Amino acid sequence: MKKIVISTGGGDAPGLNAVIYAVVKAATYRGWEVYGSRCGYLGFLDPDEMIRLTPEKVEDITPTGGTILGSTNKGNPFAMPVENLAGEIQIRDVSERVMKNFNRMGFDCHIAVGGDGSLEIAHRFAVEKGMHVIGVPKTIDNDLEATQRTFGFDTAVSTATEALDKLHSTAKSHDRVMVVEVMGRDSGWIALNSGISGGADVILIPEFRFDIDKVCAKINDNELHDKHYAIVVVAEGASAKDADVICKPQDKCEIGRQEVLLGGIGEWVADEIRKRTDKDTRSLVLGHLQRGGSPTTFDRLLALRFGAAAVRLVETETYDHMVALVTPAMKPIPLEEAIKSRKRVPADSDKLLTAREIGICLGD
């Protein structure tokens, strides 16, 4: 009988609970035990945060958003932020303690569900500490090169598209320009997919630095065609020519994050449009709305497939690998290869061609 532990790290995504459900059910089917580590690696550091997962405990969690195990962006055991007695935050390496508890608890394998940051940590445990690890890709950004799709992306795009649909009516009623900032980090997949589907006039993505003059020219062109409003979709990692990517300042609570905190480009674009066109312009940041809610049918099924496939890799002892969707099958990809590069929108993308041909300005 094998004893496995599952953790969910990084930002939450619709479908996480479906992965947990599939892992528990598939492992129980084989007569194995499953435990869950709360908030990433916290369960490895505090036994009270390690919980036994049974089919009864995961019943009916598939359609719910979030994760019953909790998650964190500040849970890297190799660089863990710890507050000392003086109230100062210090970065410490507690990885050896994690490994000792992993062995002491008798785990055969750790199924790490996360994005590139979480999977990089898992790979480091496999290489440096000898932990048996299986990775499951999780990111609403869909930016992991090794898998054709990550769960959570379809739900995030659906949420953003629905928001754009609703903004059309209010923008048209007031002859306004509505600038909508969406997530995606360094990749423009959410902005591109939702922008095309949601009838945006302008889509700005990180892959191409945009010219704000061309954006404003598109909005002015709308006026010439008796369209007095516009919808502009901006990915959080987008940037103007000769300008830096806009990031939020890091405060004490964010020390130890695996990445910079993007945000603010939507307001910048709105200000520039307002000044250059004299149009009534408002900005909206969808933010964590894109992470919340029940996963779509596509994301549920994909997450369930990922979870079941991860257990199959445990059964064959294919460790230090990530489950990847390589249509039509789930295939094991070495973690080192899986985290090597991020998937970005290519210049020859059919979706970019479609956007241009239906009159969407990309700012380039």
List the helices and strands and how they pair.
Blueprint lengths: L2 E6 L7 H14 L3 E5 L4 H4 L4 E4 L26 E4 L5 E4 L2 H10 L4 E6 L1 H14 L3 E5 L15 H22 L2 E6 L6 H9 L4 E3 L7 H13 L5 E6 L29 H13 L3 E5 L11 H19 L5 E6 L2 E6 H4 L11 H8 L7
Parallel strand pairs: 1-2, 1-6, 6-7, 7-12, 8-10, 8-11, 9-10
Antiparallel strand pairs: 2-3, 4-5, 12-13
Helix pairs in contact: 1-9, 5-6, 7-8
CATH architecture tag of the largest domain: 3-Layer(aba) Sandwich
Query: Helical residue percent?
Result: 25-40%
Largest sheet: 7 strands, mixed
Name the CATH class of the largest domain.
Answer: Alpha Beta
* % residues in beta strands: 15-25%
Low-confidence stretches: none
Strand order of the largest sheet: 3-2-1-6-7-12-13
How many independent structural domains?
A: 2
Order of helices and strands: EHEHEEEHEHEHEHEHEHEHEEHH
Number of strands: 13
Distance between the termini: 58 Å
Q: Structural class, from helix and strand content?
A: alpha/beta
Number of helices: 11
Tell me the radius of gyration.
Answer: 22 Å
- What do we call the CATH topology of the largest domain? Rossmann fold
